[in-house]
Design brief:
mainly beta, four-stranded parallel sheet, 33% strand
């Protein structure tokens, strides 16, 4: 795996007002790297589909590759027990065929990225960027695929 200033598998954590510089990646959420979890949590979580906590006011600069790098994340409506282990909700659709994306959409707010090679994601759904600024990055925002928002009203930016 790759190094990061903040390497986050516990997606529900709040990430507030950090300044991250000089790493391979600034804020990195590789949920798809371990889709069934790791260690004691193996088979009890689905990190790629876990909703984010609050992500607000972070600055990523002068990182070797990515500043903000949310990788492949699709937050879903998970039912979790008191330890945070998933009881149900990882599939893309509910049992009645509805989109299981988190509603309302998760929000990344007041993000500022500069002097990185990349900023962005490979594949992301049900996450909206509000007051996002990307300045003097080689690629202002890298994003390959997404989906329609489950809530029907949110926008990517």
């Amino acid at each position: 795996l790759q190094g990061a200033g903040i390497y986050m598998i516990g997606m529900t954590n709040d990430v507030l007002y950090n300044r991250i510089a000089g790493y391979e990646h600034g804020l990195y959420t590789p949920g798809s790297a371990f889709p069934n979890g790791q260690g004691y949590a193996w088979g009890k979580v689905c990190p790629q589909f876990t909703p984010f906590g609050a992500i607000r006011g972070n600055v990523n600069h002068d990182n070797e590759r990515y500043g903000l790098y949310l990788d492949n994340q699709y937050p879903r409506n998970l039912d979790r027990d008191e330890n945070g282990f998933v009881q149900s909700g990882c599939p893309e659709f509910t049992s009645d065929g509805k989109d299981n994306g988190v509603s309302p959409a998760n929000v990344v707010e007041d993000e500022f990225d500069y002097h990185n090679i990349f900023v962005g994601v490979y594949s992301l759904g049900d996450v909206s960027f509000v007051r996002f600024v990307s300045l003097n990055n080689a690629h202002s925002f890298y994003w390959k695929t997404s989906k329609n928002f489950a809530d029907g009203v949110s926008h990517h930016f």
